[in-house]
Amino acid sequence: MPGPRVVVLRAPGTNCDEETVHAWEKAGARAETIHVNRLIEAPRMLREYQILTLPGGFSYGDDLGAGRVLASKLGRALGDQMRAFHDQGGLVIGICNGFQVLVRSGLLPGGDPPVTATLAHNESGRFEARWVTLAPLPGKSPFVTFAEPIELPVSHGEGCFLTEHKNQLDHAGQVVLQYADEAGRPTERYPANPNGSPQGTAGVCDPSGRIFGLMPHPERFVESWHHPRWTRARHAPAGLLIFQGAVAALA
């Protein structure tokens, strides 16, 4: 049977859209990129898909802050359509800049009333680009169904997840990925935690689990040779697990 249809939303400054399409197709989905302006002109197109993806990059140059312009654009033009898409069982994932967009549009962490949060500048004061270890907390989101720690690359300058409602998110199971040390334990310590997120928060979902955002880049590790040490040891492409989980949930 054909896999779910996925739309990867493209905007000026996004730069991971084609890699994300490849990741979805490798996971068994049918994916394509669409420019945000095309979707705004014909919002009914969203009904043709089961998964909406906001990829990484620097949408609109991050001129007013990471993801802020695209978040405002989506909120004004497509807010009702995106909420209907979610209510009808659609899945949404935001990767890096896409996560920033989901947070700044209010779709994450979500809730009723919505929980407020932001993604602040890295505590190191610089752009962080390297591989990190992540501890999963499966059970809430179809995107995170694996139990063992994984490695993924990060590439961001504003990734410190801050909220006054951290205990509420923990209790609801909405924190689903945490930066971890070499032993796989969640950590706030640099450099294992690249941005200083309290309690190592790296990825969160909404109360339904169907909207998911993370700062690391799973689309950059869907082939074994994507790993920097692939010639020394066999590394299963851990990023693929996130895409496969969503595809399986819609099978």
Observed structural traits:
251 residues, alpha/beta, Rossmann fold, 9-stranded mixed sheet, two-stranded antiparallel sheet, 6 helices, 11 strands
Task: State the strand order across the main sheet.
Answer: 2-1-3-4-11-10-9-6-7
Q: Can you count the helices? A: 6
The number of E-state strands comes to 11
In CATH terms, what is the fold-level topology?
A: Rossmann fold
Question: What level of helicity do the residues show?
Answer: 10-25%
Morphology: globular
Q: Which class in CATH terms?
A: Alpha Beta
How many domain regions? 1
Strand fraction band? 15-25%
Alpha carbon gyration radius: 17 Å
Average pLDDT confidence is: 95
Which blocks of ≥5 consecutive residues have pLDDT under 50? none
Q: Give the biggest beta sheet.
A: 9 strands, mixed
**SSE ordering:** EHEHEHEHEEEEHEEEH
User: How far do the termini sit from each other?
Assistant: 9 Å
What's the CATH superfamily, by name?
Answer: Class I glutamine amidotransferase (GATase) domain
Structural class: alpha/beta
